[in-house]
Design brief:
Number of domains of chain A: 1
Distance between the termini of chain B: 44 Å
Number of strands of chain A: 2
Structural class of chain B: mainly alpha
Helix content of chain A: over 70%
Number of strands of chain B: 0
Order of helices and strands of chain A: HHHHHHEEHHHHH
Strand order of the largest sheet of chain A: 1-2
Shape of chain A: globular
Largest sheet of chain B: none
Oligomer: heterodimer
């Protein structure tokens, strides 16, 4: 394939990735890695390097709007970024010494279970109405512009969510993708945050998690300018569009999109993992 | 009251730095991508086998030097590095906001994130 058509394909694929990534809080890796490897025959290492850059682009592109409009909770983001950056470094250093195929299978199963759990639990109201002492001391309570006006929320079960965030970070360092899913799910299921706060705060955080392992991938030669440059431009366009849509979208619709993407991603991980192990 | 003011200030300033990082990085990428496509657009590329990037694309210093010689791919990689630096700048900015608001707990939290990040970016690969 010549450079011009590859660049055009990368740009349009990345626009879709940025759109989905910004709407779901997942980053763009979910769409981008299969597009690069299966669609364009790019080696998985280049694909992971490119996806990592795409995640930073989705995060930065959409977060500018989400933070300004009061969706992302910056304190929650920072507090849990300690956990995810530590996890990401751990994952990146373990990557060359671990059977990643086995990890992919386990992680896929974990995702499927948690996404099923998130639907089951959300039939009842899980949002807590009174402040939790630890969350209050950490200044994590907040409010966001819901469709019905400004609404307060009170996170709970902070330590458990923190542990899950370490796992989320490690997964991103090891597999190059998948940290956003676990972040959204732990904020949604464990902290009990409103759905849009969970996805936009995840979106805010994934850029930092990805940047933590990007240095390692850069020095190992995974990041190619010919792949990354058009992807960055495409993702930025897509994520700006996604941020616009999210503001007006209903949470249930967003949750449905998220679930569909996570199920596809989890099945992909399991299949690839099993194939890689065989 | 003070907490609310911090939240608003964070929203405004963090939003601004993210937008700046994104705009700067895309401008530099376009600056490299256009001559790259004009010169090599019809050429063929193959990413099927992983060979690892040449040394000039692997460290911040080498990328800077290569871009300074006006190599289109070097300029593109510089733009990508600017994007990677954006979350870093955003955490640093949060630190300055919390310092101005004298929020000790979050000065500490942000410092830890910043140190871990720096270690990942500049530490032993």
């Amino acid at each position: 394939m010549n450079v011009l058509s590859l660049t055009a394909l990368l740009f349009s694929g990345a626009t879709a990735a940025g759109l989905v990534g910004a709407l779901t809080g997942l980053g763009g890796g979910v769409v981008l890695v299969p597009l690069l490897t299966l669609g364009l025959g790019v080696d998985i290492k280049y694909a992971i390097g490119t996806a990592l850059v795409a995640v930073i682009a989705t995060s930065s592109g959409a977060a500018a709007a989400y933070v300004r409009e009061g969706f992302s909770n910056v304190r929650i983001g920072l507090f849990f970024e300690i956990a995810t950056t530590l996890g990401a470094l751990l994952g990146a250093f373990l990557a060359s010494r671990t059977p990643t195929s086995a990890i992919a299978v386990i992680f896929g199963v974990v995702l499927l279970t948690s996404v099923a759990f998130s639907w089951k639990e959300h039939r009842e109201a899980t949002e807590s109405l009174s402040p939790d002492p630890l969350a209050t001391r950490l200044g994590l309570n907040g409010s966001y512009p819901s469709l019905a006006g400004e609404q307060a929320y009170f996170p709970r079960r902070v330590p458990f969510a923190w542990l899950l965030m370490v796992v989320a970070g490690a997964a991103s360092g090891l597999l190059g993708i998948g940290s956003g899913a676990l972040k959204v799910l732990s904020m949604d299921n464990v902290l009990g945050l409103p759905y849009k706060v969970s996805t936009t705060t995840s979106n805010f955080m994934i850029g930092v998690t990805a940047a933590a392992s990007a240095g390692v991938y850069l020095t190992r030669g995974y990041i190619d300018p010919g792949l990354a440059a058009p992807v960055v431009l495409g993702v930025l366009a897509g994520s700006a569009l996604g941020a616009r849509i999210l503001t007006r979208a209903r949470s249930n619709v967003l949750r449905l999109v998220f679930t569909a993407v996570v199920v596809v991603m989890a099945v992909q991980m399991i299949v690839h993992g099993l194939r890689g192990a065989a | 009251m003070r907490a609310e003011r911090t939240v608003r200030r964070l929203g405004r300033e963090v939003g601004a730095i993210l937008r700046l990082g994104v705009l700067l990085s895309s401008a530099v990428i376009i600056l490299g991508l256009v001559p790259y496509l004009v010169r090599d657009g019809a050429g063929h590329v193959d990413y099927h086998l992983f060979r690892g990037e040449p040394e000039v694309f692997r460290t911040v210093r080498d990328v800077l030097a290569y871009a300074a010689q006006a190599h289109p791919r070097g300029i593109m990689q510089l733009g990508v590095l600017l994007l990677i630096a954006t979350p870093f700048a955003r955490v640093a900015l949060c630190l300055s906001v919390f310092a101005r608001e004298r929020d000790r707990l979050y000065i500490f939290v942000t410092l830890v994130v910043l140190l871990t990040l720096s270690w990942g970016l500049f530490g032993p690969g």
